[in-house]
Amino acid sequence: MVVVDSSGWIEFFIDGPKADQFAPHLSDLENVITPVVVIYEVFKKIKRERGEALARLCVSQIEKTEVIPLTHRLALEAAELSIEYSLPMADSFILATARLHRAKLITRDSDFRGITGVQVF
């Protein structure tokens, strides 16, 4: 199982320079876990930069994965990780989701560099 963070989904959807690195991780959506905060971040960025129609299409693809809601347990784990690694709130929820589901986190975000269980492109 993998968690692809917002930066990875966006890179894939806009066919950015690193899209090919994320494609193998997104080829089998049944093995992808998505924190609900990723839907927020992807929708917001794609809508702002490319329009609502594309943003909704992107979200419909993300919804084919296992979407993980925010929970009390997840919030506490995210807070702990935020303190430990000085991560912003969204990043800490994404990392907490990966950890609680024993999944590898795949990202472009350099804030995650050096954290165990994270692959940064």
Describe this structure in words.
With 121 residues, the protein is an alpha/beta fold. It has a single domain, classed as 3-Layer(aba) Sandwich (Rossmann fold). It has 6 helices and 5 strands; from the N terminus they run E-H-H-E-H-H-E-H-H-E-E. The protein has helices at residues 6-13, 19-22, 36-50, 52-62, 72-85, 89-100; strands spanning 2-4, 32-35, 66-68, 104-107, 118-120. The chain has a 5-stranded parallel beta sheet. It is globular. The mean pLDDT is 97.
Whole-number total of structural domains: 1
So, the CATH homologous superfamily? 5'-nuclease
The rough form would be described as globular
Total E-strand runs: 5
Biggest β-sheet description: 5 strands, parallel
Main structural class: alpha/beta
Strand content: 5-15%
User: Which residues form runs of ≥5 with pLDDT under 50?
Assistant: none
Distance between the termini: 18 Å
What name does the CATH topology carry?
Rossmann fold
Count of discrete alpha- or pi-helical segments spanning 4 or more residues:
6
Q: What helical percentage do the residues reach? A: 40-55%
Quaternary? single chain
Order of helices and strands: EHHEHHEHHEE
CATH architecture: 3-Layer(aba) Sandwich
Mean pLDDT: 97
CATH class: Alpha Beta
